[in-house]
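Researcher: Re-running this chain for the archive, since the previous output was lost when a drive failed. Same request as before.
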Amino acid sequence: MIQNNNSNVWSEAFLFFKEKHKDQKYGDGLEYWHHLYTVASTLQSAIDECKEFDDQTKKDLLIAATGHDSLEDTDTTKEEIKNLFGQQVLDFIKAMTNDVGDHDTSSYEQKMLNNPEEIRLLKMCDTIDNYTRICYRAKDNGPKFLKEKIMPIMENMTQKILKTEFTNYPTTASFLKQRLRCAYTLATTALDLAE
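Model: Regenerated structure tokens:
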């Protein structure tokens, strides 16, 4: 598990959210919890490398990273999250939640751009992992579907987030923006090669 001063809290949160997503799998059979772990790990590596966060915000954001899809994709309630992890974690998870569904991406994009910096950093980590999954899925899931339906949604969000400013966490944002650009390039290349 991740080693830091907050590892016990992070571990407990991860196990809780892993259980909530236990019946969810990708089309290739990979259990969904891998995404939660990777998003939180990516975020932690950026936070640890750049050293711009206070301990409490770091802890709450890492917990939220493990549960960022829970309100959208599981039966987890807001009350559960607040009781177990506190109001700030709940607020972070609510900020990551697409309340209107994938049919209305423009309102979710606007919500994301208006969110605090912490949430936009978390969204970059989420998108980095989604692009990485596309690299693995390019041949198996049909490059045409991914290229025509999934990538445009992700590309639009990516371009908008890359243009946002980060005054509280500029080094962390720069670190993640570089990784996001790289993940995007790898995903587009994988799709081109799979056609």
